[in-house]
Amino acid sequence: MKQETLEEAADNYAEKWEEITGLCWEDSFPQYVNRIDFIAGAKWQQERSYSEEEVEDIAWSAWYESQFQKPENRDEEGFIKWFKQFKKK
Question: Which pLDDT belongs to residue 68?
């Protein structure tokens, strides 16, 4: 299944704005509309992002595979130290 692009999502949102928000365009204040649209965009992005747990699982798999030839380096402590240095704060 093909994932919707940002442009496709924007077009769909614009076409179905009143249905999605439950508001009437003519009766809405621009600042209120901007707020609703900003929140909707953030939610759309969040739905397409990996959770911290998913990122950690992917990173752990990569770490484990890269250390496969060196069993003495396959320690969880080393991974945690490595992972934390790249983690956003």
Answer: 57
